[in-house]
């Protein structure tokens, strides 16, 4: 029976720790920009490709 109290206490401490980490992340602005990651896949990487092609042409 005492193990239930021990496990309950440990789980409460763990939950409080995760809550504190979540609140810290919110306070530091971790979740402010939720739009950019969804459209990042739509951006072209043409500048990187052009530079790598130019470097390959210069080596030849």
Task: Give a description of the structure.
The chain is mainly α and 60 residues long. The chain contains 3 helices and no strands. The protein has helices at residues 2-27, 36-39, 46-59. The longest helix has 26 residues, at 2-27.
List the defining traits of the structure above:
60 residues; mainly alpha; Cbb3-type cytochrome oxidase assembly protein CcoS; Cyt_oxidase_maturation_cbb3
Contiguous uncertain segments of 5+ residues? none
H-E string: HHH
> Whole-number average pLDDT?
84
CA gyration radius, whole angstroms: 25 Å
Helix content class: over 70%
Strand percentage, roughly?
under 5%
Q: What would you call the structural class? A: mainly alpha
Number of strand segments: 0
Distance between the termini: 76 Å
Organism: Parvicella tangerina
Pfam family, one: FixS
InterPro entries: Cyt_oxidase_maturation_cbb3
Protein name: Cbb3-type cytochrome oxidase assembly protein CcoS
């Amino acid at each position: 029976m005492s193990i239930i109290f021990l496990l309950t206490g440990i789980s409460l401490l763990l939950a409080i720790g995760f809550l504190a980490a979540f609140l810290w992340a919110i306070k530091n602005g971790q979740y402010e920009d939720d739009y950019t990651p969804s459209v990042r896949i739509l951006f072209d990487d043409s500048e990187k490709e052009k530079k790598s092609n130019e470097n390959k042409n210069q080596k030849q």
